[in-house]
Structures are given as C-alpha cells and as structure tokens.
Design brief:
With 290 residues, the chain is an alpha/beta fold. The protein has 13 helices and 5 strands. The chain folds into 3 domains: 2-123, Response regulator (Rossmann fold, 3-Layer(aba) Sandwich), CATH 3.40.50; 132-183; 194-278, Arc Repressor Mutant, subunit A, CATH 1.10.10. Strand 3 (51-55), helix 3 and strand 4 form a beta-alpha-beta unit.
C-alpha cells in the first residue's frame, strides 16, 4: 500500500478525503493527518509518506511553505495541493514549484480518483503490481476485456458491480474508467444498445412487443415500453405518433369502434410496425471512445 498523509484545518475535508481514498479501491492508505502546517511538517518528517495532500491556506505554515521545504529537503513525496477557487492561479504556479497536482474544493470524487490513478502509475512499477491493482495503474487491456464482454452480453442481466467484483476494483472507479472508454455511463450504454436492437426487431411483423422486450433484456413489458418511449421519443406501440397526428383518421386513437379485440390487436400491431419504420435506422456497432 502507498502511504498517504493529509493536512487541512477543516475537519470535514480530512474526513471526506479519507472516505474517498478508501472508496477508490486503489492501493493507498492514510497513515496520518494534521490540522496545521507545523504539525504536518512533523508528521512528514517522522512518517515519510509517499503522497501528501495539503490545503494551501493553513495556520502556522501554509501548504506552499510545506511544498518548498519538501523540495529543499529533497524528500521523495508527491504533493497534491488542495485549493479554493480564489486560489486557482496560485495553485497553478505551485505546480511549477514541484507539486504533483492540485485539486479544487469541494473535492469531486471522479477528479480525485483520476489523480490517485496517475499516482499509482508513477509509484507502482508495472512488474510489481498485484492482480487487484492492474486497473489502478491504468491498464487498458483489462478495460478492453470488460468492454468486449459488455458488447457481447448487453441483452443479459449484467451489472457494473459484477465486473467490479471480478476485477477487484471499486464500482465507482470502474464507472469512471468505463465512461471514459465508452463515451457514456455504463447504464446509458446498455440502454442505448438495447434500444438499437429493439428498433431492428420491431420491424419484424412476426414478433410481439413482449417478445422483443424479452430478447433485448427486459422481463417487464411495461418497463420496456417506458424505456423505449423515453429514449426514442415514441412508444413501442406507436401511441405517441398517433397522438401527434402523424397517422391520419381513426388511426389517431389506435382503436377502431365496433372491431373485436383480436382485430384491434392486429390493427394496433400494424401501426406499431409503421411507427418502428419511422425511427432512425442505425445498425452500426458503437465503438469505444478513444
């Protein structure tokens, strides 16, 4: 584990940082903390952490002063400055003074995870990585394996947690990595792929809507139609098209007076097929973002 030291005069910032570092699932361990600059310097000298998160403005000694002392003493510590928006330019100048990076308050989970991943890549040589640390070092091979499996199983009951457990990484960190690779969130990607397939299947007059729902991964007919309408702007039974007046005459209601249930069902399905044929035809395979 990579030892981390924290310094901030706001207790809630220290508490939040510790929770997020643990939540990341990356190989970091907080070994100490301080609420002022002098106490932080004592901790750095005695504990010798590899990573140091420090607020810029602190009592007794600032984060910038601590960074300068680390550089003067040639200590092998990667320093990340915590800055308020008013200190943004100040933090940028500190990077030129040897800081590894800076992070703005309020600290965002995804931004912190990216910094931690970069730190792990620098501090853990590739040949010494443990199996569970492969993703932490930014291994694209593992991400590509996951993406390939998602593309082959998107109609099945799969979850982000399933992959997180298998590859020993936190679901939140994996979510960030997949969003970068896919260009959208995991759940949105699954929905996108399922709806593209549903549009293709709805053009087949031999399939019922319930059959289409089952084939694309939805066991609940009503939930499928809800998702279809929300994502495509038209319901799977063509109802929103009828309501918009795009289908003339008695078709606008979807029901014909005096007709039997069987006749109305067949009539409604014919309009459903017509509605599906009006949807954009997109059969290309979405490729991961590069």
């Amino acid at each position: 584990m990579i030892p981390v030291y924290l310094a901030d005069d706001e207790k809630w910032v220290l508490l939040g940082l510790k929770k997020l570092i643990k939540k990341s699932g990356l190989p970091f361990q907080v070994i100490g903390e301080a609420d002022n600059g002098l106490a932080a310097w004592d901790g750095l000298c005695s504990l010798r952490p590899k990573v140091f998160f420090t607020d810029i403005r602190m009592p007794k000694m600032s984060g910038i002063d601590l960074l300068q002392k680390i550089q003067t003493e040639q200590m092998a510590i990667q320093t990340i400055l915590i800055s308020g928006y008013a200190e943004f330019e100040y933090a940028q100048s500190a990077l030129r003074g040897g800081a590894f990076d800076y992070i703005l308050k309020p600290i965002q989970e995804e931004e912190l995870f990216q910094i931690l991943s970069r730190l792990a890549s620098r501090l853990l040589p590739e040949q010494t990585l443990l199996p569970g640390e492969e993703l932490a070092a930014g291994s694209q091979d593992t991400i590509h394996k996951i993406v390939t499996e998602i593309q082959g199983r998107y109609t099945q009951d799969i979850s982000l947690q399933e992959f997180a457990d298998r590859y020993h990484i936190s679901s939140s960190h994996l979510s960030c990595l997949l969003k970068k690779e896919l260009g959208m969130a995991f759940s949105k990607y699954i929905t996108y792929r399922r709806m593209e397939l549903a549009k293709e299947l709805l053009r087949d007059r031999g399939r019922s809507i319930d059959q289409v729902a089952q084939q694309v991964g939805y066991h609940d007919y009503f939930y499928f139609t809800k998702v279809f309408k929300e994502s495509q702007g038209v319901s799977s039974n063509g109802r929103s098209i009828w309501d918009s007046g795009k289908v003339e005459g008695s078709q606008s209601t979807g029901i014909r007076c005096g007709a039997s249930l069987e006749e109305n069902t067949e009539y409604q399905w014919n309009v459903t097929v017509w509605a599906a044929e009006q949807l954009p035809h997109n059969t290309h395979r979405l490729q991961p973002a590069r």
